[in-house]
């Protein structure tokens, strides 16, 4: 076999090996996700002070989730926001919890396909939350966190707050017996 | 073309299994949900029959013409099945999920680039340029298909879009077969595409065996129904729809708000 023809089978061998490893990894992840129980998901939720979250979110939206449009909207001081949210660490905890919230919504959707639009909405909201947090991480790297924090953080918290309300409403609508546990956690 | 007993056995088994899968798709009402996949299985059934009769009554040239023409059609339908799977996974609400578009375009571009690169590297010893071109085409297509299925799998898990059971089974079957086909087409590129070549017949049998395994997997997976949803009471249904409306309205409102 001459040198050029050796490259081809070697390249194919590497290509196939990489694809098998990647496919195997994602197959394992998908199996793990599809078989997860409510208890496992619930255990992944990190504690966040819901009163603080509500306080920050309700400065931007009303209790039903409708954005405030008058002068009473977004009146919190940046330092107050930082304390209530727990800084960037607090937002990162919300980011991780938002992943669990999506999984909780898809857990309901397994039995009630009609829940799909809500699960999809929550999935997109989690992406939005991630986007806000990513902006703040970028700002932190550039030393602009103090300027950017109030704007992005409060929106991220409002999105997270609405996500928690929606997932609770979803569990209530689906008559899931685990609603009480979830209410305590969120 | 002289066919051995093993050739005929594979041929008959392939025809019987594909026919069984086609009947299953219609009888279990899966054809409506997977029109391209059904079209692909239908084509394989027609192809098996057509090639059998052309082999019996036609010339060698007729056989080659029919074989390569149907091979191109087969490959086109396989790409259509990729689209079908992608649209079932990434269009959960009948529109493409807005957060996957750029990743999807990026993954398709990368897959095309890798498939082109690998195909370009292979050199096919074959009697005619048409066969060389088609062998390279097959290698390109199987490389691309296997990449796309793995990419879709990875992307869906990353963005947390779940797969329904039947879609997942079709994708897994075709993805695994494409991956095996990459190795087989590499072998063909290496040994050549003439039946006189020693490795060609053995490689063809491996491909047929792999495809039979794949069809058996589809038959076993597509026969049972997917996990049925629980029945909702009228009150639950009302709550769910109210919730859907609230979610759509409030979050859109919040997003559109400019400060």
Descriptive keywords:
heterodimer; A: 186 residues; mainly alpha; 77% helix; 0% strand; B: 259 residues; 8 helices; 78% helix
Overview of the molecule:
The complex is a heterodimer of chains A (186) and B (259). Chain A contains 8 helices and no strands. Chain A has 186 residues and is mainly alpha-helical. The model of chain B has no long low-confidence stretch (mean pLDDT 84). Classes of the chains: A mainly alpha (186), B mainly alpha (259). The interface between A and B is large, with 62 and 52 residues.
Largest sheet of chain A: none
For the CA atoms, what is the radius of gyration of chain A?
21 Å
Proportion of residues in extended strands of chain B: under 5%
The largest β sheet of chain B comes out as: none
- Rg calculated over all Cα atoms of chain B: 22 Å
- Ends apart, CA distance between termini of chain A: 65 Å
Number of helices of chain B: 8
Discrete helix count of chain A: 8
Average pLDDT of chain A, to the nearest integer? 86
Helix amount of chain B: over 70%
Helix content of chain A: over 70%
Mean pLDDT rating of chain B: 84
Counting DSSP E segments of at least 2 residues, the number of strands of chain B comes to 0
Give a count of the beta strands of chain A, DSSP E runs of length 2 or more: 0
Global geometry of chain B: globular
Short description:
The complex is a heterodimer of chains A (186) and B (259). Helix content of chain A is 77%, strand content 0%. With 186 residues, chain A is mainly alpha-helical.
List the helices and strands and how they pair.
The complex is a heterodimer of chains A (186) and B (259).
Chain A: H1 3-34, H2 38-44, H3 50-57, H4 78-85, H5 87-111, H6 116-142, H7 145-173, H8 179-185
Chain B: H1 5-27, H2 35-57, H3 60-90, H4 101-121, H5 129-158, H6 165-191, H7 198-222, H8 234-256
Helix pairs in contact in B: 1-2, 1-7, 2-3, 3-5, 3-6, 4-5, 5-6, 6-7
């Amino acid at each position: 076999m001459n040198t050029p023809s050796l490259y081809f089978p070697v390249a194919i061998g590497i290509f196939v090996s990489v694809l098998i490893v990647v496919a195997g990894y994602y197959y394992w992840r998908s199996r793990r996700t599809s078989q997860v129980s409510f208890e496992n998901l619930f255990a992944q939720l990190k504690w966040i002070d819901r009163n603080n979250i509500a306080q920050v979110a309700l400065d931007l939206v009303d209790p039903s989730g409708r954005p405030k449009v008058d002068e009473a909207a977004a009146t919190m001081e940046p330092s107050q926001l930082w304390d209530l949210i727990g800084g960037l660490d607090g937002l990162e905890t919300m980011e991780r919890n938002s992943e669990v919230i999506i999984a909780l919504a898809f857990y309901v959707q397994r039995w009630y396909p009609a829940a799909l639009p809500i699960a999809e909405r929550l999935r997109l909201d989690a992406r939005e939350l991630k986007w806000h947090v990513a902006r703040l991480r970028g700002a932190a790297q550039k030393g602009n966190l103090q300027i950017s924090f109030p704007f992005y953080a409060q929106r991220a918290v409002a999105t997270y707050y609405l996500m928690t309300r929606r997932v609770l409403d979803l569990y209530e609508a689906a008559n899931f017996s685990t609603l009480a546990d979830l209410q305590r956690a969120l | 073309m002289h066919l051995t007993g093993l050739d005929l056995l594979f041929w008959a088994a392939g025809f019987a299994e594909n026919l069984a899968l086609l009947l299953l798709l219609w009888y279990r009402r899966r054809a409506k949900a997977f029109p391209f996949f059904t079209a692909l299985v239908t084509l394989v059934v027609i192809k098996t029959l057509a090639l059998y009769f052309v082999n019996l009554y036609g010339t060698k040239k007729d056989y080659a013409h029919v074989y390569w023409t149907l091979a191109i059609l087969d490959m086109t339908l396989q790409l259509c099945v990729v689209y079908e799977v992608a649209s079932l996974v990434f269009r959960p609400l009948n529109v493409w999920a807005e957060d996957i578009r750029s990743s999807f375009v990026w993954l398709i571009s990368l897959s095309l680039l890798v498939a082109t690169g690998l195909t370009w590297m292979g050199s096919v010893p074959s009697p005619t340029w048409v066969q060389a071109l088609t062998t390279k085409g097959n290698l390109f297509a199987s490389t691309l298909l296997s990449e796309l299925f793995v990419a879709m799998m990875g992307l869906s898990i990353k963005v947390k879009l779940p797969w329904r059971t039947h879609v997942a089974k079709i994708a897994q079957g075709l993805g695994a077969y494409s991956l095996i086909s990459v190795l087989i087409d590499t072998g063909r590129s290496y040994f050549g595409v003439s039946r006189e070549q020693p490795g060609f017949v053995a490689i063809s049998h491996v491909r047929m065996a792999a495809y039979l395994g794949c069809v058996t997997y589809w038959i076993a997976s597509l026969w049972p129904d997917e996990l049925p949803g629980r029945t909702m009471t009228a009150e639950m249904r009302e709550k769910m729809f109210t919730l859907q409306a609230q979610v759509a309205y409030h979050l859109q409102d919040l997003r559109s708000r400019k400060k």
